[in-house]
Amino acid sequence: MKHEVVDAVQNLIKEKSIDRDAFQEIIESVFVAMIKKKYGKSDNFSVIFNPDKGDIEIQCIKVIVPDGEVRDPATEISLSDANEYDPEASLGEETMVMIDYEKEFGRRVVVSAKQYLIQRIREIEKDNLYREFTQRIGEIVIGDVHQVNRKEVRLYIDKTEVIMPQNESVPSERYRRGDSIKTIVLEVKAANREPEIIVSRRHINFVRRLFELEVPEIYDGIVEIKAIAREAGERTKIAVDSNDKRIDPVGACVGMKGVRIQAIVKELNREKIDIIPWTRDRDMFIRRALAPVIPLELVYLEGGNKVLAIFPDEQIAQAIGRRGINVRLASQLTGYNIDPVRASDYYQEELSLDEVEGLPDGALELLKYAGYRTAEEVVNAGRDALDTIVDLDPETADHIFQVISGYFEETEEDA
């Protein structure tokens, strides 16, 4: 039976990796539906599908009746017709008849069945593809670039097209048709035709997976990646810790003679990678994250999430990094909003009240008696605070505050 449907089935079997039992169930259901549509029932029909050859047979059990007395063609066959299959057939017996479905159902119905069959196979293939790549989210895959435009890069992975959007590619990398590149499966979106599979080289989990592939201790859970901060194509900071005191987490990531980290850096096209030992000590962790420059002091501001990092003046540029990348990545890695400050700006000498000129007679003694020692303390306290000083009238208080605040502003301008 080399009919059009059989040829279509054979082609589908060759091209699509679909479960044989599911495929057989679809084939049989299609032809059972055709039988029911024509005869109104299918109890005495059998659909036999050979998945190895793609052959389809329809068998029907019918009762033999005298010629001219066939009332139900679905269940009865005349004696003369039955003798064509079996010369020894006799009245009242049951006989098996092979159905030529193209002749029996008509070409239009057969073509319709073929189209339905192909549609169902595509639905199964789409579901299989969605399920397969959903299970592979977070996995590194290798794909061949076949199309590049401003919005995206399209790749083939095992004959499946995947998409790397522009915002998931690395800005400094250039992709060309035919290139074989590694990416990470980021997301799988259901779509009308086929699932939309999104991959990335920019996501921090791409770096995480590369370390897992290159560093057996990470894959085995001995060394743990605690945090990653990355600006793709520029720099990555990664904090690691060891669950075994005998194993140095940084040394494990670097490898003998740097072979492990070199493999990762090569895959990332020479992107700089800082490997930092993780610690629960927040001061130590922030200092390590800011390497290669170590701050002189860390000052935590109110709220606890913002911290001033005081650096020597000559090292401030290196501490900040090109376009602020070093401080920005350190902030992402540690979870603290790090504000770099020059030492000369932070460690300014306080202006003593004895150095302020133009104060009214007796004002200096009243201010010191009230606990003030520097001009900054008076300015920070505010004008209203002077009203609480005994023996200081409002007009004098106004004058004192104007002199001190004015002097303070002048010294700021001079600086």
What can you tell me about this protein's structure?
With 415 residues, this protein is of the alpha+beta class. The strands form 4 sheets. Strands 7-6-5-8-9 form a 5-stranded antiparallel beta sheet. The longest helix has 29 residues, at 107-135. It has 16 helices and 15 strands. It is elongated and about 140 Å long. It has helices spanning 4-15, 20-39, 79-85, 101-105, 107-135, 204-214, 216-219, 249-254, 259-267, 282-289, 316-320, 325-334, 343-346, 363-369, 375-381, 394-414, and strands at 45-50, 55-65, 76-78, 94-99, 140-148, 152-157, 160-165, 180-189, 196-200, 223-231, 235-242, 272-277, 297-300, 306-311, 337-342. Helix 1 (4-15) runs parallel beside helix 5 (107-135). A hairpin with a 3-residue loop joins strand 5 and strand 6. The protein has 5 domains: 4-130, N Utilization Substance Protein A, Chain:P, domain 4 (2-Layer Sandwich); 137-202, Nucleic acid-binding proteins (OB fold (Dihydrolipoamide Acetyltransferase, E2P)), CATH 2.40.50.140; 209-268, 2-Layer Sandwich (GMP Synthetase, Chain A, domain 3), CATH 3.30.300; 279-345, K homology (KH) domain (GMP Synthetase, Chain A, domain 3); 353-414, DNA polymerase, domain 1. Mean pLDDT is 86; it is low at 411-415.
